[in-house]
Amino acid sequence: MRVIIVAWGREFAMEVGFQEPVLAIKRKLEQLLGIPVGAQTLSVSGWELVDGLDMEDYPIVTHDTKIDLTPKPLSPPFNHCSKIQITVKFSAKQIAMEVDRTETVRSLKEKIHIVDGTPIKRMSLFFSGIELADDFLNLSEYGISEFSEIIVFLKTVNRLREEPPTRKLNIVLQMSSSLLNAASIPMEMNDSNTVNDLRELLLSRKILPQDDYLFIHKQRIMRENCSLKWHGVENGDCFYVFKGTVSRTGY
């Protein structure tokens, strides 16, 4: 949707996504106008747009809504040598650390890893209820200052999600009337097997002669290179086998 940015008494249009975060819009404005993200205040009808929310969280923002941009001075000190003390809190402990205001979130995670040994990939850092993203923003631009508290949540490592287990499926092949007198053939396959694997198995066992075949599951032609799991095949399902081929457009 299009919104109208109002700044310094001037207006200009900008396209934004309905689900686009407020923080992402501020980054666009930084590139367009040169105003640092931390120095921007965006508001609609007096309501300030909060960095941790998306545009869809504000029902008052619709097509051609006017959004006021008010630049604000950055809080000093803001230089490359400004060290600050922060507290990094875990669920059962906390760590005092000295960091630079200009460090990135990624750099902070690396320091926490060195001090505590927590894997970087498992860390989610939060400040004032907002998750800190691994991007080009530095700690000051998130409002982190002297004695700020950073909360660390640990992501659960789910190997099952990365490598889902393979399931055995008992399926039934129902041949057409031109094949094996319309016989029903029970078979056992893995859900990770493709339709082409099934076809090659039938040919190798000489259950079917060399030819082109179509496999139908729940009234849909199955794709040769896709797995049974991809097709939504469940234990006990029935397939129909016919002679023939299908063009790519048929997929």
Task: Please describe what this structure looks like.
With 251 residues, this protein is α+β, with helices and mostly antiparallel strands. The protein has three domains: 70 residues, Phosphatidylinositol 3-kinase Catalytic Subunit, Chain A, domain 1 (Ubiquitin-like (UB roll), Roll), CATH 3.10.20.90; 75 residues, Roll (Ubiquitin-like (UB roll)), CATH 3.10.20; 83 residues, Roll (Ubiquitin-like (UB roll)). The strands form three sheets. The protein has a five-stranded mixed sheet, with no helix packed on it. A hairpin with a 2-residue loop joins strand 3 and strand 4.
How are the secondary structure elements laid out?
Layout: E1 2-7, E2 10-15, H1 22-33, E3 40-44, E4 47-48, E5 66-71, E6 83-89, E7 94-100, H2 105-116, E8 123-127, E9 130-131, E10 149-154, H3 159-162, E11 168-175, E12 184-190, H4 195-204, E13 213-217, E14 220-221, E15 238-243
Parallel strand pairs: 1-5, 6-10, 11-15
Antiparallel strand pairs: 1-2, 3-4, 3-5, 6-7, 8-9, 8-10, 11-12, 13-14, 13-15
